[in-house]
Backbone:
């Protein structure tokens, strides 16, 4: 891989990567089972430079901002490179937001350029707030010929001959403005520098290297910090290949693992859980003797890989399982939300390590990661090289707010000095997450600081921590809240209690066995941590792009729909 | 070629049958996530069923932001 210490900006390191690995394949794009595009690093350069030249000719200068609203595809990465080449600042926006939200963030970021897919642009054009758009240059990909584009250009036609001038940036110049998926109305634009990304890339690849021949399946949205790093910058500086699949239909995703012999993939916990469900169902269908044999192989594998993974051994013992994943899968990467230890353990026992980590947009991609020496299902790993973590004001059990000091921590929030001052204090990023270090230096997370409850007895309770006791509860989804969080008390001294919010599966009824299951699990908790009652909620929980429950929004919805008295006591 | 209304009716019939929801509870302007009580992964499953029924292909990215039966019907109709 390229020596990142020698570079001051992403544009320069990507430019060298395109030359160094010119004959390697960098991108494969597939529409279902049909491969649409395969580009070498040299092809990538040939498409990107005329775009960079056209941007320069349109007065897109150093430090100007350019937003991208696209699903995962080659033109996302090509456009991003052209923007960096011109010295621009990239604003990757979440394509899953509504048109009104897109317009709000375009205005907030003051983006001069927007690169957007046709179907998303159509939605933006139809938005009542569209007239106020101030973005000057809009490039629309895949627009049908003759389609009405309201003054926008077709991306495919926006190119100019002649070499563009490469604009060098310094380490502390802004590379990206990334909006974190906060649930409040106030946009939180994390301003990340070139150094932030170069450092993050260096520390991640120190533990999990890429090399030419590695194929990374890009499923998480590229606008998300994880995919931007492990599905673009990381593979590119190492000469690896990124596979974009233009569908998330499980049947095609499964095929893609095999067809492209995928090495790494990053997934949100919900998709991981879904994969687990599918595999368990398949295992259950096996004839008895085959199932017994499989169980023996899984136990043997677990025993032999207790200390560290041994991929070749696991592939031998559990050949069919590994074949189903293409036979070359090294690890599944996850993060961004709390994940059930039973799920990561399930995959590890099959010889497919799940690399769990912890990070937030404000700190680049990841602060901690599991180094698999040995695998731990119950932690989010150890701090990455160059990351210092502290636990602030730890309680008797060592639990306190996690604070981070690292070259990967953002510079500030865009146009919000007040919030910046509250969040970065004397060089330490206050994450708002509660955690503690266990004796081997692994970080364990317990929940968000703002969700914590202090009981009458002075004990701290973390709803997310208690949720783990309900892992595997046979319902569609569930969450635990402090009752006072949903219905703020109207008088002092209102007793603190916890409520379990249940979302049942389609056609599932709340029956006696389910009640007994909940009660049994509840009894496993110390009495001050027990859940006082439950509520059945009939809508899907609102979730962020990384599938975390939007707790505040869900609490507000529940609070509007139900009164406190609706809670059924357990 | 069937009319948009007929296409819409067929979509509602199929959705009701597949997710075991009474047909009369579904109407064209309903948000299908809410009306059927499904998440994004189950929606992909519904789309596959619809594609097989109408013999069309609906790319995921074209359906980004589509959440009601009527708009979905329009997308299918445009491909018939």
Residues:
């Amino acid at each position: 891989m390229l020596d990142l210490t020698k570079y001051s900006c992403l544009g320069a390191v990507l430019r060298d990567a395109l030359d160094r690995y010119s004959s390697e394949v960098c991108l494969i794009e597939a529409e279902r089972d049909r491969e649409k595009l395969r580009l070498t690093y040299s092809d990538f350069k040939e498409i990107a430079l005329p775009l960079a030249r056209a941007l320069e000719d349109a007065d897109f200068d150093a430090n100007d901002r350019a937003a991208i609203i696209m699903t995962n595809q080659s033109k996302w990465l090509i456009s991003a490179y052209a923007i960096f080449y011109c010295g621009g600042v990239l604003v990757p926006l979440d394509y899953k937001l509504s048109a009104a939200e897109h317009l709000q963030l375009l205005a907030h970021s003051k983006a001069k350029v927007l690169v957007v897919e046709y179907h998303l642009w159509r939605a933006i054009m139809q938005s009542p707030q569209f007239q106020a758009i101030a973005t000057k240059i809009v490039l629309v990909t895949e627009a049908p010929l003759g389609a009405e584009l309201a003054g926008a250009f077709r991306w495919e036609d926006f190119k100019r001959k002649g070499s563009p001038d490469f604009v060098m940036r310094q380490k502390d110049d802004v590379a990206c403005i990334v909006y974190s998926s906060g649930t409040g109305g106030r946009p939180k634009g994390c301003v990340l520098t070139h150094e932030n990304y170069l450092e993050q890339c260096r520390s991640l690849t120190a533990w999990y290297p890429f090399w030419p021949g590695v194929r990374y399946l890009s499923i998480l949205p590229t606008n998300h910090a994880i995919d931007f790093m492990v599905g673009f910058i990381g593979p590119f500086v190492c000469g690896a290949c990124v596979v974009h699949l233009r569908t998330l239909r499980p049947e095609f995703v499964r095929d893609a693992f095999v067809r492209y012999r995928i090495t790494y993939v990053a997934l949100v916990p919900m998709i991981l859980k879904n994969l687990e469900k599918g595999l368990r169902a398949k295992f259950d269908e096996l004839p008895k003797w085959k199932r017994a044999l499989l169980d023996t192989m899984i136990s043997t594998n677990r025993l032999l890989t207790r200390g560290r993974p041994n991929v070749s051994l696991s592939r031998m013992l559990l050949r069919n399982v590994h074949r189903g994943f293409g036979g070359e899968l090294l690890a599944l990467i996850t993060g961004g939300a709390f994940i059930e230890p039973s799920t990561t353990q399930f995959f590890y026992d099959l010889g497919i390590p799940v690399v769990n980590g912890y990070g937030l947009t404000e700190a680049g991609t990841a602060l901690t990661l599991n180094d698999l020496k040995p695998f731990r299902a119950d932690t989010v790993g150890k701090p990455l090289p160059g990351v210092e973590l502290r636990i602030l004001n730890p309680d008797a059990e060592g639990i306190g707010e996690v604070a981070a000091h690292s070259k990967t921590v953002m510079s500030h929030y865009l146009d919000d000095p007040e919030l910046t001052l509250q969040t970065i204090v004397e060089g330490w990023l206050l994450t708002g997450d509660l955690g503690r270090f266990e004796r081997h230096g692994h970080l364990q997370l317990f929940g968000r600081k703002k969700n914590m409850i202090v009981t009458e007895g002075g004990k701290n309770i973390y709803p997310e921590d208690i949720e783990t006791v309900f892992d595997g509860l046979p319902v569609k989804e569930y969450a635990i809240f402090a009752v006072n969080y949903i219905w703020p008390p109207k008088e002092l001294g209102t007793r603190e209690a916890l409520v379990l919010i249940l979302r049942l599966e389609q056609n599932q009824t709340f029956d006696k066995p389910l009640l007994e299951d909940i009660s049994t699990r509840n009894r496993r908790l110390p009495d001050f941590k027990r859940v006082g009652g439950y509520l059945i909620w009939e809508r899907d929980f609102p979730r962020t792009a990384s599938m975390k429950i939007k707790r505040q929004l869900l609490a507000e919805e529940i609070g509007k729909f139900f009164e406190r008295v609706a809670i059924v006591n357990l | 070629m069937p009319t948009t209304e007929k296409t819409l009716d067929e979509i509602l019939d199929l959705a009701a049958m597949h997710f075991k929801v009474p047909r009369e509870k579904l109407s064209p302007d309903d948000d299908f996530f809410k009306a059927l009580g499904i998440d994004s992964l189950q929606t992909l499953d519904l789309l596959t069923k619809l594609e097989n029924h109408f013999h069309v292909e609906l790319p995921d990215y074209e359906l980004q932001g589509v959440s009601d039966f009527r708009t979905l019907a329009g997308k299918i109709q445009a491909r018939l």
